[in-house]
Amino acid sequence: MRRIFSNKIFIISAVVVLIFVLAALTAGENSRMNVVRNVLTVPLSPLQKGIVGVSNWVKDSINFFREVRTAREENKELKKKLQQMEQELENVYRLQKENENLRKLLDFKEQFTQEIVGCNIIAKDSGNLFETFTIDRGSRDGISVNDPVINANGLVGRVAKVDLFTSKVVSIIDTESSVSARLSKSRDLVILRGDSQLRTQGLCRLDYIPPDVEVAVGDTVETSGLSSIYPKGIIIGEIVQIVKNEGQFDYYAIVKPAVDFRRLEEVVVIKVGAEQGNGDD
């Protein structure tokens, strides 16, 4: 009983003190309690500042997390818009490329009297270069063995095998390739062949060049038109090196094709007709 009585006295005393303090703090300037308020303000001032500081910290923290959430939402929205813009740019690039290919196709139609057909490359042999590859057109499209294959830059190769829906193409860098060519500057005739060592670099060679033939680095090489396969005047590439054969009268030159055989996607087949020969000129 004594303990309960003591607790009641403590609670009542605390309430009285609290009422007294509140009355002192809320008293007017002319009130008698003003003196008490001034006395109490000194020890309670740090407590008031602490309460205000905690309140401001809580408020700032709430605002901070609210701003973080808003920033995350804005960042997510910006990423979404960026992805949409990238997709739109990709579509624009694809359409531009398609239009460019159509323009080149029209140019080809004006350049050659034979019918031409555009093809996509759908497969290639192992390796980094398009030495031999498969196109998505075949005999049902009028493709024949030995039809020349070109792109906007120059000569690619010839059709080596034809199925109903697809065809296999052998490029000019292949070791079995042989093309009757002409030096654009001197108009001399030469033979362009694939080379087992040079093909890994995407290069070809001009073989058996007589010593009296004028040839220099930078000279352009084109098809001669003297074979039954390749029409005249198709750009093949340019000479990048001349090599003398020791103990022999002739020499050979290394040719860099105008076509980049590392990045082939689309080609054009010139439909010259039925199968002709074995590809040599």
Automatic annotation (TrEMBL):
Coiled-coil portions: 68-115
Keywords of this protein's UniProt record, alphabetized? Cell shape, Coiled coil
Fetch the InterPro entries from UniProt: Cell/Rod_1, Cell/Rod_MreC_2, MreC, MreC_beta-barrel_core
The terms describing its cellular component in GO are: plasma membrane
The entry's family comment says: Belongs to the MreC family.
Q: What role does this protein play?
A: Involved in formation and maintenance of cell shape.
Query: Which NCBIfam families does the UniProt entry name for this protein?
Result: mreC
Protein name, entry field: Cell shape-determining protein MreC
Q: Which organism is it from?
A: Thermoclostridium stercorarium (strain ATCC 35414 / DSM 8532 / NCIMB 11754)
